[in-house]
Description:
Elements: H1 2-10, E1 14-16, E2 23-25, E3 37-40, E4 43-49, E5 54-60, E6 77-84, E7 86-91, E8 94-99, E9 103-106, E10 112-116, E11 121-128
Antiparallel strand pairs: 1-2, 3-4, 4-5, 5-11, 6-9, 6-11, 7-8, 7-10
Amino acid sequence: MMLLLKALQLRGYSKINNNTNIPIVMPVNKENSAIPEQVKEGFKRRITHLENLMVVVCDFTNGPMPIPDPPHSHPHQQITYVAEGELLLFLDEEKHHLTQGDIFLVPSDLPHCIQTISRHVRLIDCFSPIREDFLK
């Protein structure tokens, strides 16, 4: 729990109640006040979370990608909303063409990856439990 609280404080998403010394999670995170993390060239993300739920806004500006990212998997359940752009989603051996407004689900441990088709793609990822590896 202390790792979670420290991560919240470092990202500016919480403050400490001076009377009780209990962290207060801010219920609103404005886009212009959250500093995006540059994951790699052409990929930035903004993260917010509670104890068991994480939302990650992913902005890809490196499209179209000539080949998909390498497949990966994780024990977390994932639901993703395509907020902007066009991409190919690879879920295990299946390929799906997705556009703005589409939603996809990734069960625990299922290999998956994407390939952007448009120049800019914005995905809203939700993870449960939280991706503690994203907080390091």
